């Protein structure tokens, strides 16, 4: 089962508070493990302009108000940009699936600062990672649901509504979920 390009949606009983109500876009999934980016966790009081001010000399107008997200608990000082696939970095862009791409090099931030970046983008600090078989075990233990990743859900939906929208996309009403398991 290859879940690359899918969304993981945290179940209410998720034991790790870092992933409570998380929606994670899976950039890579194989027998060697998985890597994803949380798409609904904004970094408090951190804007793209704060990052660009440190890295490039003159950001383009309008780019400074874009928010920064916490992509996950691993390597939180490292930046990743999840974006639409019409943009290609001169350095390295990973084409993920269905119109999505990821770039983790400085040149995409320079392109965004110059107004030449991708049409849609989310800047992340850190990522979520799983070792071989770990994600599959968490899914089997009802830690995660999976669903298709749509551009509108990932890039256009307000962060606070992405979890509910992801659940609705697979026919689940978030109000009907419980964190406790039952027996029939």
Automatic annotation (TrEMBL):
UniProt name for this protein: UPF0301 protein ACFSUD_11630
Top-rank taxon, per record: Bacteria
Assigned protein family: Belongs to the UPF0301 (AlgH) family.
InterPro entries, sorted: AlgH-like
Organism: Sulfitobacter aestuarii
